[in-house]
Amino acid sequence: MRNDFTSLVSRIRSGPPVGLFRIGWVRALANLNEFFVHHEDVRRANRLDPRNLTPAMDAALWLNVRRGSHFLSRRLHGCGLEIAWAGTNERVMARAGEPTALASGEPGELLLYIFGRQAAARVQVSGPPDAIAAVQRTHFGI
């Protein structure tokens, strides 16, 4: 049994296998998203409020929202979607189209939203009624 544990630790320490996840920024993007979203899945399932994040974590999550929002909103049809970091001038056009809805919130909440956790995310969606309806019936995420 000791050899199995030792080889497992060695394998993990050697990093990801050859492929896309060997690229540092790809690994950082995916890992931050996965760890954050799944951590919040557990918290929200246990009726815990969102965490107070550091400015650095908010900035990192916002960067990932900006990088991933177009891909994660690919199932949205019939309208556009703009995403805004509440209380700042930071915005990204996730999906072009008319009419356009605006999803606004904190970076972590926006990440949850575009990852398909709309029911748990504290995000305000505004805009024309047709755009809001299209956004609300869309399954975001991977």
Task: Give structural attributes.
142 residues, 14% strand, alpha+beta, 48% helix, 5 helices, four-stranded mixed β-sheet
Mind explaining what this structure looks like?
There is one protein chain. The protein has 5 helices and 4 strands. It is of the alpha+beta class and 142 residues long. The protein has one domain. It has a 4-stranded mixed β-sheet. The longest helix has 22 residues.
Q: Look at the helices and sheets and give the structural class.
A: alpha+beta
Number of strands: 4
- Which residues sit in consecutive blocks of at least 5 with pLDDT less than 50? none
User: Averaging pLDDT over every residue, what do you get?
Assistant: 90
Separation, N- and C-terminal Cα atoms: 37 Å
How do the SSEs run, as a string of H and E?
Answer: HHHEEEHEH
How do the helices and strands line up, and which of them pair or pack?
Blueprint: H1 2-13, H2 24-45, H3 55-72, E1 80-85, E2 91-95, E3 100-105, H4 107-114, E4 124-126, H5 129-136
Parallel strand pairs: 1-3
Antiparallel strand pairs: 1-2, 3-4
Helix pairs in contact: 3-4
TL;DR?
With 142 residues, this protein is of the alpha+beta class. It is 48% helix and 14% strand.
